Every structure is written in C-alpha cells, then in structure tokens.
Amino acid sequence: MDSKGGEAFVSDVGTDIGTGTGTGADVVFVYRPTVADFEEALRARALRTGAGRVQALTGPVVAVGALAGFGLVVGMSAPVLVVALVVLAAVVSWGTLRALRTQARRMFSIVEPYGQCRMVADERGAVSTGERVSFTVEWAVHREYLETARLFVLLGGERSAGVAVLPKRGAQGPEGVERLRAILDRNLKPLRRQRLP
To answer: What are phi and psi of 77, to 5 degrees?
Structure first.
C-alpha cells in the first residue's frame, strides 16, 4: 500500500524511496509502536503547536468562562465562585488529558496490526514495512516535525491531518537519530526543540 500526497492506494509497482540500497543515504529504524508513543506525540503536539494548544485548551477555557459568567449573573459570592472555578478547571483539564489518552489508544489500534515496523528514509520520503502492510510517504505529505526525548513526530500538511510517530529506540545507533534529524531538517519545518538529554 502506497500513501502519497495523503491518498492511499494499493500498488504492485516498486518505489525508489528508501530502497535500502546501502548507499549511505538511507536511514533505517526498526521498532514496534506502543500506546505510550502516541500519548507522548499527542502531548507534545498539544504543548508545541498552535492547533494542539487550541484543541487542548478550548474545553477548559470555555467551561471556566461559562461558569464565571454564570456566577457573576446569579451573584455568587467571590470565595464560592473561585472554589467552583478551580474545581471545574481541574475536572475539565483531567477530562482533556483522558481524551488525549483515548485518542492515542485509537491511533495505536490502527497501527497495532502492523506489528514490528521497519522504516527506511531518504531525502525523498520514507517506506514503512510492517508484518502485514507497507506504505510509502513522500515528505511533502508532512508540513513540519517536532522532536521529543524519545520520538520524532511528523505533523500533517495541507493534504494530510495525520500524526506520524518515529520512536528513536528504533534507530540502529545514535548516528541513525542524527541522520534522520538532518533529513527531516532539510525536508520539513522543525518546530522549536525542547531540551533533549
């Protein structure tokens, strides 16, 4: 199965992206995705992208604003209103975190059947091969990427709203992480990096 430009289709025709020809230009990652990978990716997206922050903060801000407005209209005393706002903010924030975990489990359930994945990347894109499926993605499908201590997270561009997760544990060594970072820097917009160990 090839995925180019956000469209998926089955193909018997080979591709020259990430062919693993041993030219030294390819980077190989071998890993088994986990729910924790997707949770970390979604948390990083929520903290470090405008769209992620809007998605994570909309619920709490709207709920607190609505309660504050209601409290002022009905004449709640200041101490009662403050306590109610703090409790509501905590509950809605907890709900937002639970929603991210649920979303991560859904995303993982899509890739879990792939089993162990082998991703080969070069300057044109990446080929990922699982135990049951393989697909090709050109870098143009993604707009930007962010990096956490354990992951590279590729964020969808105009033609794709997805999030792709590449765990660093899949690299064949520290040089593999460095080489993939260099390829991503040349082909995607890197978002602000958090301090890495």
So the answer is: -70, 150
Six-digit token pair at 6? 């956000």
Q: For the full predicted model, state whether its pTM sits above 0.85.
A: no
Kind of pairing, strands 7-9 and 2-4?
antiparallel
The residues facing 166 across adjacent strands are 152
Strand partners, 65: none
Sheet order of strands, 163-167 included: 163-167, 151-156, 142-147, 189-190
Q: Do residues 190 and 146 touch, judged by C-beta distance below 8 A?
A: yes
| Contact (Cβ atoms closer than 8 angstroms) between residue 25 and residue 135 | no
What is the identity of the amino acid at 17?
Answer: I
Residue range 53-93, pLDDT digits in tens: 777 778 788 888 888 888 888 888 888 888 888 888 888 88
Question: Is beta strand 134-138 parallel, antiparallel or unpaired with respect to 125-129?
Answer: antiparallel
Q: How far is CA 87 from CA 60, 63, 64, 96, 131, in A?
A: 11, 11, 10, 14, 47
Do β-strands 151-156 and 142-147 pair in parallel, antiparallel, or remain unpaired?
A: antiparallel
Separation of alpha carbons 174 and 177, rounded Å? 5
DSSP 192: P
